[in-house]
Specification:
Blueprint: E1 2-9, H1 14-24, E2 32-40, H2 45-50, E3 54-57, H3 67-79, E4 83-87, H4 88-102, E5 106-111, H5 120-129, E6 135-138, H6 141-151, E7 158-160, E8 183-187, H7 197-210, E9 215-219, H8 225-234, E10 241-245, H9 250-255, E11 259-262, H10 271-278, E12 283-285
Helix pairs in contact: 3-4, 4-5
Length: about 300
């Protein structure tokens, strides 16, 4: 069975990493996955290729590019696709429309975040394309309910499938990075205001008054890094807050943390919370989106 997975990019992010883990563990004797990104590749491209998965890049020239429909239809026809599985609003929209025109038997959408940024016309597109979708998978009940309530969509097509992690990689026995001082840590794409990191940095300004040597490590990169670094300098927290950039040794980072914090203002689920819990790290997180479905208060 040929399954086409359509996603906007293959940059490092929760959705992309989750797709990688799913395809890595897929029964390849039954399913042939093909990954198609719409606009640009990213750091994960080589990871997919190493799994022996075909990766196709399309040429989306600008935000509204009708020629993208023809490109997707061509891929569907050439690869004899049985199922199209799309991820997040952009890929869901273009992929659903193109796949229905191409006559694909089964179309699955995935929504992995609380999409608070949507305008009225985004929600209108959701409602227009909704009848063409067979199933919409969300990673939490909060994501599902947000989609239903804001888009006035029928609950019957939705199913919640929580994210999974590889517990053979995230185990408490992992040796951590050597931290000499009490360490608070977070792992996130640096994308404000969603991730709420400005509040975590503000909290460090309070914590250091009682624990001057306490440190906060922030792993990840993104468009808000420069602004966050300026806030750290403005508060004179350079000795307490460290930006580590993109890291692939998340297991070691988590093992070296005394407390893991995720201060998101909205979140579909938060994969890294699951990873921190698998490493038996205490978690402090906001009561936002799907987080309380994972973190039990108290």
């Amino acid at each position: 069975m040929n399954i086409l997975h359509i996603i906007s990019t293959l940059e490092i992010g929760g959705v992309e990493l989750q797709l990688f883990e799913v395809l890595k563990n897929l029964d390849r004797s039954r399913f042939n996955p093909i990954v198609c990104w719409l606009s640009r590749g990213g750091e994960l491209t080589d990871d997919f290729l190493k799994l022996g998965i075909e990766v196709i890049v399309l040429k989306r020239r600008f935000r509204f590019d009708p020629l993208l429909i023809r490109q997707i239809i061509r891929v569907v026809k050439e690869k004899r696709i049985d199922i199209v599985h799309t991820y997040m609003f952009t890929a869901n929209s273009w992929g659903t429309l193109s796949s229905r025109l191409a006559g694909v038997p089964v179309i699955i959408n995935s929504v992995r975040d609380i999409e608070v940024w949507k305008k009225w016309y985004h929600r209108f597109i959701d409602r227009i394309l909704f009848p063409s979708v067979d199933v919409i998978i969300t990673n939490s009940d909060a994501t599902r309910d947000f989609m239903i309530n804001n888009g006035r969509l029928d609950r019957k097509k939705f199913v919640t499938v929580y994210n999974g992690i590889d517990i053979s990689k995230f185990t408490p026995c992992t040796s951590g990075i050597d931290n000499k001082f009490p360490t608070i840590g977070t792992v996130a794409r640096l994308d404000e205001p969603k991730k709420g990191l400005v509040f975590l940095i503000g909290a460090m300004d309070i914590i250091r008054r009682e624990m001057p040597r306490c440190q906060l490590i922030i792993a990840g990169d993104g468009p808000s890094r420069g602004d966050l670094e300026r806030i750290v300098r403005m508060r004179e927290l350079e000795e307490n807050v460290k930006f580590l950039g993109f890291r692939r040794d998340i297991q070691k980072l988590l093992a070296g943390m005394d407390v893991f914090v995720l201060p998101s203002l909205w979140e579909g689920l938060g994969n890294v919370i699951l990873e921190a819990m698998a490493m038996e790290r205490p978690v402090v997180a906001t009561n936002a989106g799907g987080i309380p479905e994972v973190v039990i208060n108290g």
